[in-house]
Amino acid sequence: MELGRLDETGYNSLFAFSCIAQNSDRYIMHSDHSHAPVLDAATLISQAMERARVSGLRRTKALEDVIRILIEASGPLTLGDLAESKELKSGADKATVYRLLMKLEERGLIRRLGLHDRSAYYVMIYPGAHNDFLICTKCGVIEALDIACPVEALEKKIAKQSGFSKLYHELEFFGLCPKCG
Ligand SMILES: [Zn+2]
Ligand SMILES: [Zn+2]
Predict the structure, then answer these.
(1) Which domains, ranges and CATH numbers included, belong to the chain?
(2) Could you tell me the distance, in angstroms and rounded to a whole number, from the CA of residue 131 to the centre of ligand 2?
(3) CA of 52 to the centre of ligand 2 (A)
(4) What separation in Å is there between the alpha carbon of 181 and the centre of ligand 1?
């Protein structure tokens, strides 16, 4: 599958967002990376919809909206971000969006990120792509890990030794961001 091709740094351009800065009581994404996406959003959306269909999810306007918004977002989104976004054209209420997020998470299409005492963030999972994040335990800033992933080599070794195929990993590193440290 031609998903999540990596650039020379090993960093997937699809996750090119850098910082979620705190602004009063909510988080605003700042995208100041200039990587162009490897696949266009429309292709990613149709691939995600197909994965949703295969996993048994009924195709609804709300489902399509949620998937599209998550893919087009420059970073992880909260339930509130999704439910209150003007892009949610189906007008689904918060409870509906929440149920959809649960279903998508159960089926491995999206991933829930974050800290227990804060609202969770959701990101799309792209098969074969990197999903590693740095999370500040003090202010809640989330950044995509912008280094060549050292786990890749380990993954290959594990696959070889165990006979498992299609290995993937999802890492969350917690710590203090430069501002809070
Ligand atoms: Zn911080
Ligand atoms: Zn990794």
Answers:
(1) 13-175 (1.10.10.10)
(2) 6
(3) 24
(4) 7
146 vs 144: CA distance, rounded Å:
6
Beta carbons of 137 and 176 less than 8 angstroms apart: yes
Centre of ligand 2 to C-alpha 96, Å, is 32
pTM of the model: 0.69
The DSSP code for 92 is -
Q: Where are the alpha helices (H) located in 7-166, listed in sequence order?
A: 41-54, 61-72, 79-84, 94-106, 151-162
Q: What is the pLDDT of residues 45-58, one digit of tens each?
A: 999 999 999 999 99
Residue 27's H or E segment, with its range, is: strand 26-30
12 or 96: which leads in pLDDT: 96
Q: How confident is the model at residue 171 (pLDDT cuts 50, 70, 90)?
A: confident
- Cα–Cα dist 22/20, whole Å: 7
The closest ligand to the CA of 140 turns out to be 1
Mean pLDDT of 114-121: 68
pLDDT at 36 over 60: no
CA of 181, nearest ligand number: 1
Contact (CB, 8 A) for 92 and 62:
yes
